[in-house]
Known about the structure:
globular, single chain, Alpha-D-Glucose-1,6-Bisphosphate, Chain A, domain 4, 8-stranded antiparallel sheet
Amino acid sequence: MTEGLTMADGEQVHRTVHETEVAAPAGVVYGMIADAARWPLLFLPNVHVDRLEFDGANERLRMWATANGQVKSWTSRRVLDAAARRIEFRQEIPSAPLTAMSGTWIVEALGAERSKLTLLHAFSVAGDRAADAAWVERATDTNSRAELAGLAALAGQWARLDELVLSFEDSVRIDAPPQLVYAFLEDAGRWPDRLPHVSRLDLTEETAGVQVMSMDTLTADGAAHTTESVRVCFPDAARIVYKQTVTPVLMSAHTGAWTVAPGPAGTTIATSRHNVVLREEAVERVLGAGTDLAWARSYVREALGRNSTATLNHAKRYAESAAVL
């Protein structure tokens, strides 16, 4: 639901309301909303969240998310009230065309294992331009519906989340400076020429450090997978984070990070981290009759780990060769 209000100073404030019922206890739902760092695994539009400040109740976040096909970034402040199961938020410096954006998450118990989740937004746009207001309303509606649907689907499986969510990492020690390793990982546009398991990669970078890419990769059994991702690069921190916006069938969500750090005795430690939510209903369809979540966890761990470790080993050869030139 969307409505517009005119303030005394003539500024138009648009308000939206989205709500859904969730087959999970209110405490579980609130916990998922409160843990913003995990939002990219829960919510399709969210790419990455960095917590900048937190004192137990007041929080400051840097966020990246897609909106109407574009990648937007902003910094938000949140006030968390666990007792009331209510979280208020406000964007510090809104991303254009917004001039203000705020809202509230509200979780209400409907029983021991059922909840109502409400998401409120209030926003204004520069010059009250109708086209800009319509753009924001469309993005807010699309993202809010996707967020509530994603959370409801995953929270509805709250008793089995430990089986569905998988996180792991692999590291490689490299005898070369960190900047050479980071350069290889950041320059993904050249991966088809450098990585045997990457057969195609299309990359655009309209905003510096924000890469949108579509990639075809090969598994050990020769199967091809097409994925689409958004990557956010942090050269000063030698870190690249990413969110797959189109995933293989076996996964409902996949996020990750490449990190490069100084190691012992002048070496570099390059690490690949993966966070995955498995799609249980696809397990037998993809892996065959009789397979289960344990099998799927092992399969995904091996497949993703093999490809990312291969990428790190190619980065190692590249960096070590460049270091001696």
